[in-house]
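Work package 3, deliverable 3.1, input record:
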Amino acid sequence: MALQSTDVDENDDSTVWLLRLYVAGSGAKSLAAFANLKKICEECKAGHYQIEVIDLLENPHLAFEDNIVAIPTLLRKVPEPIRKIIGDLSNTERTLIGLDLLLKNGSNTW
Amino acid sequence: MNENTADNKSTSSINKSRPQLPKSPTGIQGLDEITGGGLPAGRPTLVCGSAGCGKTLLAMEFLVRGATEFDEPGVFMAFEETTKDLIQNVASLGFDLTVLIADKKILLDFVYIERSEIEETGEYDLEGLFIRLGYAIDSIGAKRVVLDTIESLFAGLPNPFILRAELRRLFRWLKEKGVTAIITGERGNETLTRQGLEEYISDCVIMLDNRVTSQDSTRRLRIVKYRGSTHGTNEYPFLIDENGFSILPITSLGLQHSISYERVSTGVPRLDTMLDNKGYFRGSTVLVYGTAGTGKSSLAAQFAESACLRGERVLYFSFEESPAQIMRNMRSIGIDLQSCMESGLLKFHANRTTFSGLETHLATMHREINRFKPQIVIVDPLSSLHIEGKGAEVKAVLMRLVDFLKTNQITGFFTSLATSNAALPEIFSTQDITSLIDTCLVVRSVESGGERNRILSILKSRGMTHSNQIREFILTTHGIELCDVYVGSEGVLTGSARVVQEAKKVAIALLHQQTTEYKQRELENKRSILNAKIATLEAEFAIQQAEDEKIIEQEMAQVQQLELDRLRMEKVREADAVPNIILGD
């Protein structure tokens, strides 16, 4: 499947995406998730993204405050609306759907 | 049950001869009795049941009691209700969570998962939940944990295989943490829970149920299993009210209750006389059986009043009349229940029987008795429970009530309405409840001579020599009175027939008295006549005697005169003394 960045919002390119990745320690899943996220961001949002990695083992209260259940969880804080994605992001297509990065028109996903 | 508190381990080590599983008391009325001390300490317990059966409330009460009574803080992880809703919901049970939360006794955590907001993109685990729960437990030093209802994760998160594996890990992790946990689960079609959680939580499984039979719902609790411990196996009815849960343990006490030789007055002096001069045994059960309007409630009220005057506590369950109505009616026969109630010794609990199911009634009674701690319990009338259920059920319920009363040395006084005027309780003929009753009084109304009167007899009274006599039962303006009845050729006489009979008796006695007096007078007369006759005869005799004596005297005088004359003649004739020849002439 071809990957296309979204053109729905003209301001998209100028908006800096704020992404937060919740992990627990530096296990295989954590590292894989971070690598996968980095790859997708570079492809679609190069230069317009920030990734914040939060290790819940170090900040356990954030699991409570941010309502985290599954690990890894990716939170798109900006732009609104907030989106939540779980898993190690190895399924790129689903990750793109989750991040609203797939074209809503002309895509065979819909 | 409060002895089995936090230091279960020390208790179990003392009790070496028979090691007991450490238990964590729930503080929930009745549940600790059924489980023999509480839930398995440091292990997860599964509470399952269909929607609306009280799982969340049970779990919440477990936490609140733990925090308030056993100094064990708790974490409540909610998957379905927001913390705000939860606080509001349990406020109706009288628990103020806001205070407990502020005191760090309870921590609420609402785990919210919206499937539409979550995209699954690969491998994941529930480490976030573990960390979150671990953080919550550590932050308040929790000993108790509730997960309500963790199965909703299945609706929110994809990939049930991962979830299952993670849940298994979670329960193991909870055990390692040493917290006593309640995990609630919605009932499945063929399994205890929808996702088969019972496979993972095998230490203790409690099932709640809310069944509706003939329009009455009854909540029931059953312990499906409890590994390593004996437990009650029945279904136990329970209530949820403004004071939380109360579960009614069905008394399977093996008839070991201690008995009393103490007697309690019936409140009717002549009825006491009929019962061995002393009245009922304390802790016994009394049934008054009779048709409508025979004075069953009056007997109950009289008993209640006399008990209150002795300073005893009386709990009056009324199923047909409101307390105000009972008090008004009893005042008309001189029984003052109002002041008994005002002094706090008498308490009414009035409900229509249709208000709830049979089991719920029993549970209610149980709870009320536990709270009020009465010496005497009155159920008026017992037979209205019969409308609710079948004979066998009523008997089972009654048996449990009787056992409970006897265990607590409470005298039970029940009235039962008969549908016909038979001497024996025929409505229970198939399920004869009189076998559960120690003293059975029968009140009947007798129709004769154009009026209806009440009679009372003792059908049985265990353990005492009681009267076999039928008494007339009269409601006067100063209470209940018993009178002797007359047994005549037309049967038992009561009411005005009895009064007539009494009058007749007086008349006959008078007649007898008169006859005797007449006879005596007659005898007296006869004696006087006799005496008079004797006097007359004596008088006649005296006259006769006098006359006769006079004649004799005259005769004697004549003879003497003749002798004198002869002697004079002899002298004259100077004859020789040959008187005999002369005389022989």
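Confidence is low (pLDDT under 50) at residues 1-17, 427-431 of chain B.
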